[in-house]
Amino acid sequence: MYLTQGLHRATQQNPDAAMTVYGERTRTNREVMDRVARLAGALRGLGVAPGDRVAILSLNSDRYHEYLLAMPWADAVLNPVNIRWSAAEIAYSLEDSDSRVLLVDDAFAPLVPALRERFDGLTTVIHCGDGATPDGMTSYEALIAAAEPIADARRGGDALAGIFYTGGTTGFPKGVMLSHTNLMTSALGGVATGYLMAPDAVFLHAAPMFHLADLAGWLGVLIAGGTHVMIPAFDPVAVLNAVQQHRVTSSVLVPVMIQLLADHPRAAEFDLGSVEYLMYGASPISEAVLERAMRLFPRAGFTQAYGQTEAAPIITLLGPEEHRSGRLRSAGKAVPHSEIRIVDADGLDVPAGAVGEVVTRGGHIMLGYWNKPDETAAALRTGWLHTGDGGYLDADGYLHIVDRLKDMIVSGGENVYSAEVENAIAAHPAVAAVAVIGIPDDEWGERVHAVIVCKPGHTVTPAEIRDHTKERIAAYKAPRSVDLVEALPVSGAGKILKRDLREQYWGDKARMVN
Amino acid sequence: MYLTQGLHRATQQNPDAAMTVYGERTRTNREVMDRVARLAGALRGLGVAPGDRVAILSLNSDRYHEYLLAMPWADAVLNPVNIRWSAAEIAYSLEDSDSRVLLVDDAFAPLVPALRERFDGLTTVIHCGDGATPDGMTSYEALIAAAEPIADARRGGDALAGIFYTGGTTGFPKGVMLSHTNLMTSALGGVATGYLMAPDAVFLHAAPMFHLADLAGWLGVLIAGGTHVMIPAFDPVAVLNAVQQHRVTSSVLVPVMIQLLADHPRAAEFDLGSVEYLMYGASPISEAVLERAMRLFPRAGFTQAYGQTEAAPIITLLGPEEHRSGRLRSAGKAVPHSEIRIVDADGLDVPAGAVGEVVTRGGHIMLGYWNKPDETAAALRTGWLHTGDGGYLDADGYLHIVDRLKDMIVSGGENVYSAEVENAIAAHPAVAAVAVIGIPDDEWGERVHAVIVCKPGHTVTPAEIRDHTKERIAAYKAPRSVDLVEALPVSGAGKILKRDLREQYWGDKARMVN
């Protein structure tokens, strides 16, 4: 299997159907295939050899889609850069992967001098924006116009398809190496569940396309032969507009986006009845937010995806029926391509219901971390991908993620899983978003602490939050302290950066667990 | 990906659900997993090392299912033997693959002395029948009872999963080597279309389990976590009974079986309303037979699969909606894991609508032929599997198989594709089955000849057939001669053996094309 298969199939079966829609620009399957073959030819002309890494730093666009196809067409290796990173972090990832060619759009062109300064291996910068091409860069459209198309390399199987740097929630970025088979397996397995994709899908790319969450949806729609609608970046009104205008049927969002849509004052003005499937993931969602979202998208089946970049990315899914049947607290079941187990520190299975580390195996598991054999060996020890997530399996084989293992709070000898506390707090009518962390406490070792964003015009007191929480879960899990903030720090993928939150409280300590 | 994944997942998610039903015997997911782990342990004890081939020669049963799982569990290689073969052919395949361990049931135990005589490497015969264990054989149940379970080898990816000898329609059998990824890709891609499989599927194994057509269904149901109902072999009343008794939801059949069910005088006595999906393949089906079958199974969506052993096996599918929308003459569209092209003798694409050879590429394509590097290189030249089938793509990307390339009849300089003629003849009310071949003719080079099986109590004259055919297709395609026979020669997989038919007419000629 290889990433470009869906492009060939779509062009063969529906040459004149719309493949990409971006602003006023619509391109058919046939047009995209021609442009991809030319872009691949242009890259070859620029000296990109098979196996070379080519990076992109861009908001969402139809050209991002072409990049994702032209690199495998030329047997180059994808490196979609996290758009939330600083110049130092981006330069690190370019240098680490030796990405000498970079595509940038208008939004990120101003960063290029700083990148060049930090990584002098950056020889070629292609401007894929719509504004004038800055000095020292090559015009994307001029390249395509001048290039001869080349034949699809059709490399696939275990060949390296891309290096995907993981976000900053768990330490310094690592380059996750995914093969064609890894990505296609996850996409096929996701499609096989019947969720999200259909040949007439109109998929909205509102989450950033650099992230595996959106890329999983991208590849599923590509396989199914549907239409991709891109907006540059998530914005509630832009999403609502695009859904109404293009009769969007499906999308992949992260919970914070769903919360912003559900709580948007203008949401009710739009016709959102075309939406059939919404997949969300990257972090847990509270039941209260999900209930509001289900009212906003009345025809939509909600699917929760649990996964990570290292699993290309889908490990388990919780489908629409299971959302309606009270399974909301679960992350779902292992999908057709994936096997999961819960293990202790020695790699042995724990009893059903007991918490341990989630491990997974199947065709979706990464080749390894780029240039990091020790980390690779640790993550893939015993032949299973160790997710670093704590969870348990219930009697029906549903996975429950209790937390990132390192997010477990040990307070007075009791284990407290922050996701459970967050779920309870989020049900409070004044709460828009919440993160629960452990902070140092002389008496308890760690203390349960909540950081809360209130809905506009609302506020709460710590005592109200404690009382509200204790009505729902055990008293020792209720936060002993509460901070109200304007916004939570989130990664490019919408994950709450708990490390950043913890640093405010643990800053001068050697470690962040007591 | 590895073949045993579905067993682990089903046991984790529904340990006490029925996995196999055979006669009065029902076994749960948990029981099957325990027995598979023990059978694998027993094989290890018998000296079966990783990579060794282990054959089975048996009618369908729940133990066939256990064999299919225990071999990959032990990292042994499957070799499911064609049950229609002669002792000489079977011995050839055992010796060619060096399968020193063989499982046989009651039906085939009498063949064992002849096999031992021809292949002295056959050291161990395991009796997996329900009768008394013959002398010189080991009891399957005694092995399982005495064995210690071993851990699943969980070898997968490109590792060899099985050698599948292709039927005798196109010359001497070749061992098709399929990897875990090959088989799982085809199964995932098939499931991804939404046809056939669901977690609550009750699948009937009525076609022989040695064949990839049934094995594709087997793996799809395994992935989905459904129940497998086995009957020893196809028999119309046994199928009708099993469907009614076990509320069967899906099956894979070959056209000749569908014809026998549709025309069975007792068919109307049975409640067949549980059947939701019927997949058929291995040879084309006439529209007349399909119409009768659609009346017999009123709730069933019919899906036509086009494929071959070398493609593990699914290449294209024609789904239920397309059966209802007049697409019946097509073999469907390339499925999500598969790419197809139509090429000329030089491997270049022919224009849309023109006939050429069907080639395909993707994760489903075989590793190669066992011990046949030249044939492998020929079949996989230019990186594409050359199917040997002639076909064309219409403007919507639907594949139309016009014939096995060698089945094309050239009569008076005109190309005649036998499938088209067969379709026309099969619509005659007296015709139960028909095969059209080219036979030598002094005037025309080759002459279109029809071999017909009439329905009970009916007969036809050659003139009636010619007139009937000419009403439907061009006159030069109508058969110039007709033979009425009691039955057509069919392979173990239900394919009409045209080679056998042709030999009656071409026997003393050096080749069978003029």
From TrEMBL, chains A, B:
Name this protein carries in UniProt: Long-chain fatty acid--CoA ligase
Listed transmembrane segments: none
MF terms in GO: ligase activity
CDD domains referenced in this protein's UniProt entry, alphabetically: FACL_FadD13-like
Every AMP-dependent synthetase/ligase domain range: 8-370
Ranges where the AMP-binding enzyme C-terminal domain occurs: 420-495
NCBIfam families given in the database record: PRK06187.1 (NF004837)
UniProt entry tagged with the keyword Kinase: no
Keywords on record: Ligase
Superkingdom assignment: Bacteria
Organism taxonomic ancestry: Bacteria, Bacillati, Actinomycetota, Actinomycetes, Mycobacteriales
Organism annotation: Nocardia tengchongensis
